[in-house]
Amino acid sequence: MYGQQYLLHLLLVICLVFCNGQVLQFGTCPDVKTMQYFDVEEFLGQWYEIERFPIWYEQYDPIGIPFSVISTDYKNYAVVYGCKNNESLGLKYISAWILSRQSTLPEEYLSLAYRDVNSVPSVSQIYMEKVNHSATRCSSYWTAHIQPIYFNQDGQK
């Protein structure tokens, strides 16, 4: 009986992955190497999504994924990564974004961003989807409110 339930759960997860296209993997979120000496003040301002992981679960049930800046030059591009564990299912939800200060990103910066995306464990640029910034797709304006959480050297808030 236990084996049948496990197989049913496994098939359900596989179906969800292939039907919805999200990046959902077995395991727990890894520790990732983030930017040293990240300057929050310099990072603030307007950014455009250039490419991102599909995020179906945010559309139906926002789960609030904490994210980290993997790399940025502050003026042109940024690579942002997020991961949230679902301990009851033994899964992790993974998100990643390539951002730009403009609605497009020159190839030289996109190549740097891909390099940095691919450096994160369990992440690959093959999961990325391009974001359409055409006038018809961007007819409404919205903003995201981002608050930094500061940690000391011991990892305490």
Automatic annotation (TrEMBL):
<dbReference type="InterPro" id="IPR012674">
    <property type="entry name" value="Calycin"/>
</dbReference>
<protein>
    <recommendedName>
        <fullName>Lipocalin/cytosolic fatty-acid binding domain-containing protein</fullName>
    </recommendedName>
</protein>
<dbReference type="GO" id="GO:0006629">
    <property type="term" value="P:lipid metabolic process"/>
</dbReference>
<comment type="similarity">
    <text>Belongs to the calycin superfamily. Lipocalin family.</text>
</comment>
<dbReference type="GO" id="GO:0005737">
    <property type="term" value="C:cytoplasm"/>
</dbReference>
<dbReference type="InterPro" id="IPR022272">
    <property type="entry name" value="Lipocalin_CS"/>
</dbReference>
<feature type="domain" description="Lipocalin/cytosolic fatty-acid binding">
    <location>
        <begin position="64"/>
        <end position="111"/>
    </location>
</feature>
<dbReference type="GO" id="GO:0000302">
    <property type="term" value="P:response to reactive oxygen species"/>
</dbReference>
<feature type="signal peptide">
    <location>
        <begin position="1"/>
        <end position="21"/>
    </location>
</feature>
<keyword id="KW-0732">Signal</keyword>
<dbReference type="Pfam" id="PF00061">
    <property type="entry name" value="Lipocalin"/>
</dbReference>
<dbReference type="InterPro" id="IPR000566">
    <property type="entry name" value="Lipocln_cytosolic_FA-bd_dom"/>
</dbReference>
